[in-house]
């Protein structure tokens, strides 16, 4: 642990910027972890609260000259908290277990959930729930989220386009395995379809291994490392069997964990080689598109666009130029960089559900910068960020004027066929 | 721990949400950037204005509770570690620019303002605030003033001390004093402004500062000179100044430093050079071009292996960024990094670098040296591991000898990091017993109950060594 308390991480940390409190900074959180480790402090409420307040955006890692692996320290701390008895209420534990272990890792159950959600949304039940004021029974931020959820699906990308898409326009550049995600595939099925289509246009052969499961990010970030490892093993096997050159992700949050599968399974000697094989093939869709045959995009009308970095894509997968280059290369698009685009939007996995106040404060500041660009469309590379931007537009912007979209969907709608 | 009644009194002044004594907050304020030093305060308070600071001090002085004022805690000598417990007073809420006076070229600011934010604002008005400590992205003006912070531009432009022309400060008793003002000349009474700069929070709590601003230089150019011999590089520094050229920046990095900084900043710096000089000159374009040309000539005459002038401002920026992160990039080598700032007259740089090398070898410890060679301020940096007690002891012994060498060469134990607690045992070597006595007298006059940052500046006993007289 090389932290020398120089404080360079403080200006990069969104929660420090919101509160000005040392304990809400990476330097502070590391000091707390050390205090608990040294027995100076009990791992009780104040400590747990701080570990919960951290967004896990890892902007501090990018700012730290001493190469402190803050993300790993946070994971270990949360793992220890979850393992310790009595740190979470029984109801919370049961609920988390039911969803994290009982639903997310099982694609068929996810699709059932998707189907049920779609039924709720389409059948007028949703309208009834909102109109009758039943939504008021939920905490306001959950009610808001319900309003902005896109339409769910019970089928998923593989059902729509099949398990394989041939490369178009000549010899395949490479063979790519599409990581479809869990929430991604029921709430953003179209984005998955568009991802596959764009890659095929760029000359890639796209396969969708059926045995893949949830990436495990929510589990790892929530302190359930055992479940995360289990999911990792299953994913590694699925993609290894498919024999792909790349594993493409369109969700920064997932990609960040996939690219660290080798670290996740470092204590699993039997799987170390496969995990390394997997990790070095993980790539974000924007990066991959730039390695394929060049595609041309044009917007039917002039449009002003801005981009919100996905923290995990930027700080963990170290990718920020590729999405911007693709967006700026669309004819008719005026790309306007927003101030502090590299700062977290406050979505952070399920943080916007578990820490609504801090998330809301961060989002308010984010929307100030977004609105200042005057953009018609805010683009993102991650479903969480996308939902958060939609929420931000609802709360602080003008939904009739401004839209939020995934980079892939935006590009797909503007592709110029040869 | 703070008694309930004192806590209530303080809560009545700042509001209950701005006085904290929970364990998390106390742990978070038990350290600064000084390695291997930590002590828990009893409470942390966040005042929002001078009046609150004054009222807080009245309460604390009545109850004889010590106070440590703090900006961002990036101090390297233990100056903001609450070694005697008490209350840490965090100045971050007082972070505004109160006034920018474009007629008088001054700014009035609050202590909790981040230095770089201030510099950016000054630049937006077409002016220049030169003192640029490497911590400026997070350190505060108040912290810079308390420590008398330097920076890379110290050689040509001076340091924080040269830009503070007025202060408002709260004494231990709670009384508020104002010193100086928007005046270029003021000799009314003793110069309390200059006394408070660098007083490390031991004489008063700074609540407002009037800073001098200057017109910005028109242009700037950066160059690099690489040397196969450490002595050649060190001698070059002296030769440049002898030639009556004062560059804006004249920075020095030795080989271990070069390797680590390049690993972090990826600049393609050659790893086989013994020393690199990073030189910047700013001002009128013709003068800058001429100076850079002359400096390059001197470097070549003194056997520089390669001389490179940055082609664009961006390239120049990148070079300077690498130098600014030298300290923390060195932290990648080993778990613990101890940095000192022994300073000597410029003409003695080569001798000092040789001494550091000799001493490091003698104690078998790893010391990398970089620093503001143009003003004689070097940063010998030991990379070690706090868990290795034996090595730590050797490192400490090495630094003691380095301080002695610096004083022997006519220098000082600290050029810009301050005395704090880490260098207090050596202060007498520099100022002598009479100097210590007079300084203690001044401390007594300001703070008779020793409430302001106790345990700093003056050690219980000076280190037992021969006090060297300057010959």
Walk me through the structure.
The complex is a heterodimer of chains A (418) and B (471). By secondary structure, chain A is α/β, with parallel strands linked by helices. Chain A has 4 domains: 10-83, no CATH class; 107-148, no CATH class; 157-289, Rossmann fold (3-Layer(aba) Sandwich), CATH 3.40.50; 296-416, 3-Layer(aba) Sandwich (Rossmann fold), CATH 3.40.50. Chain A has 24 helices and 9 strands. In chain A, the strands form 2 sheets. In chain A, strands 1-3-2-4-5 form a 5-stranded mixed β-sheet. A 4-stranded parallel β-sheet of chain A has the order 7-6-8-9, sandwiched between helices. In chain A, helix 23 (383-396) links the parallel strand 8 (377-380) and strand 9. In chain A, helix 14 (225-242) crosses helix 17 and helix 22 crosses helix 23. Chain A is globular, with a radius of gyration of 21 Å. In chain B, helix 9 packs across helix 11. Chain B has helices spanning 4-14, 23-28, 50-62, 115-124, 141-147, 154-157, 192-196, 230-242, 255-265, 285-301, 313-324, 326-330, 349-363, 389-408, 427-446; strands at residues 19-20, 43-45, 67-70, 87-90, 97-101, 106-109, 164-170, 176-180, 205-212, 219-227, 249-254, 275-283, 304-309, 336-339, 367-372, 377-384. In chain B, the strands form 3 sheets. Chain B has a 7-stranded antiparallel β-sheet with strand order 13-10-12-11-15-16-14, sandwiched between helices. A 5-stranded antiparallel β-sheet of chain B has the order 5-6-9-7-8. Chain B has a 4-stranded mixed β-sheet with strand order 1-2-4-3. Chain B has 471 residues and is α+β, with helices and mostly antiparallel strands. Chain B contains 15 helices and 16 strands. Chain B has 3 domains: 1-216, Uridine Diphospho-n-acetylenolpyruvylglucosamine Reductase, domain 3, CATH 3.30.465.10; 219-315, 2-Layer Sandwich (Alpha-Beta Plaits), CATH 3.30.70; 333-417, Alpha-Beta Plaits (2-Layer Sandwich).
